[in-house]
Amino acid sequence: MDINFRTIKRYDARIMSFDLQNSVIERSIINEGFIPIGAKPKLKPRLMELKIEFRNKLRLSQFVEDLIQSDQILIDINDGFIYRCTLKQMDGNITSIANRWHQLTIPLYAIQSGTKRRVCLKYHETLVIVAGTHECDVVYELFPKENGSININGIKIDNVKAGSTLIIDGINKLITENGANAFGRSNLRKFPSLPAGENVVTLDKDIDAFLYYYPVFA
Q1: Whole-angstrom Cα Rg for the chain
Q2: pLDDT tens digits, one per residue of 75-92
Q3: Which residue intervals of 80-211 are DSSP H helices?
């Protein structure tokens, strides 16, 4: 098993169990009249419990520190999927077991995903076929060639600089230009996501542009 593309063996550890609950799809009701009208169904993160045994507490502490400092937790159990996780809690519950091993139980929220996909976007529009079975958050990476504004799929960013790197990140909920916050220069109402299947992404400038996403599976 790899966590954030690092084998668990580097921490002198071994995976004891990997418990992933079934998928849950939730639809909220937006009109409770005689015939209820439901909003678009949304896939909820799945509860996961990960049990890891460490040979000593020092390596366990190093693992916990790396885990807490990570922006995201990507777990690969070699089953063909990537599990994008967030910590549910970290209460430091450690159990000492035989032969001086120490067991750590980690509760997580997980989305079952495929490997990261990259699509080159063209001016004026690009057909993007999103893999997976459910809607997924996407990231736009744009490289303006001139000063001005950029509009991609209805999201407009003003006062961009030529030669900069503009990121509209639907996964981490950020808009940045050269790493600085650019949210205030946007008309954004909802961070970008695309449903599984065929989508058309529009772009109003002839620039280098890319889309990244992790396919989501039930």
Answers
A1: 21
A2: 998 888 999 998 887 765
A3: none
